[in-house]
Amino acid sequence: MHLPENLRDSLKNPLGILIRDSDTTKENILKNIPAGSFVITVGDATTDKLIKYGIIPSLQIVDGLEKRSKRELPSSFVKTTFSCDNPPAQITQKSIDVIKEAIQVPPARITVTGEEDLLVLPVCVFAPENSVVLYGQPNEGLVIIRINSEIRNKAQTIMSSMS
How many CB atoms lie within 10 A of CB 107? Predict the structure, then answer.
């Protein structure tokens, strides 16, 4: 699935609560993660930040890049690792399949060759009921999404609009 030009701008709006970079603290993050949540991080910096705060993601999706520059992968804390190819501005069927599989065996990591940004969408569709998804909004802050039917439908609608 390719992201069409007409959807790019709409995806610049956060899908959930935006915590500005200046306000991103462990306390502000934890206020938005109910106890017992299945925590999913998308992005290296987001994953790194949570691990540094002692919040271990149930699923982390990383690509070894930050703002298109190579970086070391975050510390691990995973039981199972997966990998997939996902070119920029796309969501591959393999990526979707790997997300579905990795959700079943937490704590897990998916290392993406390509770009992981758009994988927030299938994660929102397939995450377990009690999930919270976190990802970085470039140059703005951290987005926290509590998964519910409204978010699932919005993510599915966006994915359905991709060809």
Answer: 16
Element (H, E) at 131: strand 131-137
- Expressed as residue numbers, the domain containing 114 is 5-160
CA 5, CA 139: separation in Å to the nearest integer?
A: 21
β-sheet with 131-137: strand ranges across: 17-20, 141-146, 131-137, 38-42, 59-62, 108-114, 80-86
Q: In total, how many domains does the chain have? A: 1
Distance CA 109, CA 124 (A): 16
Express each pLDDT in 83-136 by its tens digit: 999 999 999 999 999 999 999 999 999 999 999 999 999 999 999 999 999 999
Alpha carbon distance 86, 89 (integer Å): 9
Question: pLDDT tens digits for 43-69?
Answer: 999 999 999 999 999 999 998 877 666
State phi, psi for 15 to the nearest 5 degrees: -80, -15
